């Protein structure tokens, strides 16, 4: 397994290719707890994180926000008491790109740092 969180994100324009089936299969090995879901015709990486309380969930949400801003790539984040749901995908290409898997790995690392 590679250390995907250490990979660099690349600029992703509207004409960038989506990850191929083989690429998704390979990259998914590094973030196996993330589901690949199709929502409104677009594949997304989706994961629910359980935390101790609302304050911890808010802290984690803010960490994800910092990751997103650093890469100018923004997920859907749903904050609830003791739970944060995150979905990564590349809006401008309507599906998954390697960047989404990298940021999923960084999200996992941020969560693990809080434990």
Automatic annotation (TrEMBL):
The keyword Cytoplasm does not apply. It comes from the Bacteria. One of its GO terms (molecular function) is 4-alpha-hydroxytetrahydrobiopterin dehydratase activity. It catalyses: (4aS,6R)-4a-hydroxy-L-erythro-5,6,7,8-tetrahydrobiopterin = (6R)-L-erythro-6,7-dihydrobiopterin + H2O. It holds the Pfam family Pterin_4a. Its EC number is 4.2.1.96. One of its GO terms (biological process) is tetrahydrobiopterin biosynthetic process. HAMAP family: Pterin_4_alpha. Belongs to the pterin-4-alpha-carbinolamine dehydratase family. This is Putative pterin-4-alpha-carbinolamine dehydratase. The lineage of its organism: Bacteria, Pseudomonadati, Pseudomonadota, Gammaproteobacteria, Pseudomonadales.
